[in-house]
Amino acid sequence: MTNILDLSAIDITLLYKSRWDIEIFFKFLKQELNFSHLINRSENGIMVVLYTTMIAATLLLTYKEINGLKGYKIMKQHFLNELEKLLMKDIVALCGGDPNKVDLLLKIPPK
Fold it and tell me: pTM above 0.70?
């Protein structure tokens, strides 16, 4: 960017600042969501994986903020436990069972 002579110093600074925000986001994706390599090499495959990961990141960060949780590891574990509980309740209800008994099975106090 510093080789682009028609940009002002302020424009270059803003571009570097934006780049830094992007770097921080990708660091979060790699460290917290294990987005370390691409599964597919096609443009469509890369876009699907990237969008799916970004949706997961958005859901996790929203969950973290709503529940007032601190670290990422605890937040991911809470999120997965709650998701598992909700999925089990849905499956039990679809099978004609009582979804309220899932709390007893998992020994989780109902909300």
Answer: no
How far does the chain reach from its first CA to its final CA, in angstroms?
A: 53
Residue 49, H or E segment: helix 43-67
Task: Give me the amino acid identity at 54.
Answer: M
CA distance 12 to 20: 12
Are the beta carbons of 32 and 75 closer than 8 angstroms? no
Q: pLDDT tens across 35-80, in order?
A: 777 777 888 988 888 888 889 888 888 998 998 988 888 888 888 8
Report residue 88 as tokens: 């089990």
Buried b (16+ CB within 10 A) or exposed e, 33-65: eebeeeeeeeeeeeeeeeeeeeebbeebeebbe
Give 53's contacts (C-beta < 8 A, 6+ positions apart): 29, 33, 35
